[in-house]
Amino acid sequence: MTHPEDDPLYQGLKVNKGIAQPPSVNPYLKNRAKRRSYSVNEYVDGILDGNIPLLSQAVTLVESAKPEHQDMAQAIIEKCLPHSGNAIRVGITGVPGAGKSTSIDAFGMYLLELGHKLAVLAIDPSSERSKGSILGDKTRMEKLSMEQNAFIRPSPSAGSLGGVARKTRETIILCEAAGFNYVFVETVGVGQSETAVHSMVDFFLLIQLAGTGDELQGIKRGIMEMADGIVINKADGDNIEKAKMAKRQLKNALHLYPLPDSGWTPEVLTYSGYYKLNIGGVWDMVHRYIDFVKQNGFFEKKRNEQSKYWMYETINERLKNDFYRNPAIEKLMPRLENEVLSARKSSFVAAKEALDEYYTLKNKF
Amino acid sequence: MTHPEDDPLYQGLKVNKGIAQPPSVNPYLKNRAKRRSYSVNEYVDGILDGNIPLLSQAVTLVESAKPEHQDMAQAIIEKCLPHSGNAIRVGITGVPGAGKSTSIDAFGMYLLELGHKLAVLAIDPSSERSKGSILGDKTRMEKLSMEQNAFIRPSPSAGSLGGVARKTRETIILCEAAGFNYVFVETVGVGQSETAVHSMVDFFLLIQLAGTGDELQGIKRGIMEMADGIVINKADGDNIEKAKMAKRQLKNALHLYPLPDSGWTPEVLTYSGYYKLNIGGVWDMVHRYIDFVKQNGFFEKKRNEQSKYWMYETINERLKNDFYRNPAIEKLMPRLENEVLSARKSSFVAAKEALDEYYTLKNKF
Fold first, then answer.
1. Among B196, B212, B241, B343, which has the highest number of CB atoms less than 10 A from its own CB?
2. C-alpha–C-alpha distance, residues A230 and B239, integer Å
3. Three-point CA angle A292, A294, A300, nearest 5°
4. Residue among B192, B214, B352 minimizing CB distance to A192
5. Minimal Cα–Cα distance from A234 to chain B, Å?
6. pLDDT by residue (tens digit) across A85-103?
């Protein structure tokens, strides 16, 4: 049992202004951890009121695998939808060691000081394997994690990349409804999750390190092509010249790519997350981009294309959920899996058996 | 109308030894192109007999989107399954320009001269976009395409990567049942298709070019990690020294990766596809690997893991097919897509509408 002071939810309760909560509870009472259950409308009202603990609990529903939680989450999302869409959504990626945490801390504090509210989400499909997400961990963003106007949420950890991405996408809706007008979606620049992030953000920011050739190898070509802006971190002290050279190299490399659909030529900038140098320059670039694509119509077009993508993703996810969460299928799959793993049954025969069972059940009702 | 001599199917008919076919048909008769319909058993018997035109037509059924073709394809696959699994399956990848076609031509001729039968398949998810696959195009493999013991099939072009990959995986079964004891699955080293290929082959071969640093950037890190062998092409003439240097560099780079689950240390070799230098060395490596993993049990283990993967892939594909090919859904989706694209409906509401329609229909029967 963790000390209540260490429980982020409990911490949130203390700053909760929307809905009355007991100011303190005896941590040794057995039912202390038992949260009150809220109705869909209570959740929605709380979220629209900017109530962080309720937002946080609603996100937990989104991430839950339980069908009753999923139903509730969907009802909340649907009611929040008309109040969403008003944030600038920024995808942030970079290889491990590029200084993403420090940068997000610096970027976030910069935006907060301008009076904005920021949600930091993450997509890390590897988090399931490693049993714990490295992304979005509050402790990595020292200053931001102390701020009331920042909502930091680690990557949902269960399920496929598609499932994890859908949950993050739904969380964006809730955060926007709660009044967060900037949303960061963080990911590591080594996996396939960048495509998923790209499908839910307005601006895709790639953090690179100062240095030559070698460092560029770490990032995949496809990710470079997705970037609306590349920012070279640690451009400070002795490193400034190297950063400038990397900037020239990256600019040259970008020239080889065709102009993206946005009509925007990706920019390359240097900055220092740690020493907070040129943070404003980075955000001027982001805002220049947003103005540009809002004027040429690409902003709306991209958001609508993303909606189409998510319509299909949502359908595909639900089809799978309906199958794999069917009690008969849940019982059947481990046996089939064993039979396939021990070569007693072919993958096709096993798949057919499961599908026949499912569709027979479906048609029974 | 193409000249019958140019029609690969017609060419196949001439060499067909399994089932009696008219030796020649008048190309100007209207029903010339009308193929005879075969029963599942006729297909299976033909395939097991090594009848190439029937194999080719069965693969067309596998690739077809029509439900009646799909049903037939599944029945054929199920009957071919007990006769499959006996080939050495090799995934071959490399960036465009690495000389994949020339290499496959040389590798294939080498294996054919040893008395083997080779099927060359491909996975190219971009083929849908570009309306025509660049991979598996017969004309790229000059010598191999003239050989009776080589079956070359371009990438299936319709559908998602998952769908394309499943079709290729199913085609492997049919080819093996038809007596092909080597199967190549070719892909371009720039997409996400390598993971799919990796899930269906025993050995993953990466073709690289002689040269320094820059050339390595073209290949993604994840692909390097998948490779069981890296072979450096164009190690001929003035290029030999450069190739040797690349070999040293790649060996050093591979040292940074953890030993793969197979327990096999990936090897790096040089060769020349064009001048046919060290082709035998490449295949000695492949066979050394196969012996190694057959002895330590990894060969069987990997195949069974792949079967498990394909059980889930097959289920997921069928769930989607059942949905998207439902006539009511087929009619509904274009309207929903338009509403989402014009921002008149959110992705979630549209998805819900389609799913409700589908599950209501399902429960009606």
1. B196
2. 36
3. 135
4. B192
5. 23
6. 999 999 999 877 788 889 9
Instruction: Tell me, rounded to whole angstroms, the distance of Cα B285 from its chain centroid.
Output: 22
Contacts of A76 in chain B (CB under 8 A): none
Task: Report the 10 Å Cβ neighbour count for B329.
Answer: 18
Q: Which two tokens stand for residue B122?
A: 């491909």
For residue B71, the chain A residues in CB contact (below 8 A) are none
pLDDT of A363 reads 74
- Residue among A77, A68, A67 at smallest CA distance from A37: A68
Spatial distance between the Cα atoms of A120 and A102, rounded to a whole number of angstroms: 13
Using CB atoms, pick whichever of A218, A314, A349 lies closest to residue B78: A349
List the one residue out of A229, A112, A118, A236 whose CA is nearest residue A179: A118
Q: Which fold has domain A84-302?
A: Rossmann fold (3.40.50)
Which pLDDT value is given to residue A137? 60
* A171 Cβ contact list (under 8 Å, min separation 6): A59, A62, A119, A121, A153, A156
Phi, psi torsion values for B231, nearest 5 degrees: -120, 130
Give the CATH fold of the B306-364 domain.
Answer: Helix Hairpins (1.10.287)
What's the pLDDT tens digit per position in B45-65? 999 999 999 999 999 999 988
Residue with tokens 């000081």: A113
Q: Alpha helices of chain A — where are they, by DSSP H?
A: 8-15, 40-48, 52-63, 67-80, 100-113, 161-177, 193-198, 214-217, 221-226, 240-255, 279-295, 298-324, 327-341, 347-364
- Interchain pair A304, B222: CB under 8 A: no
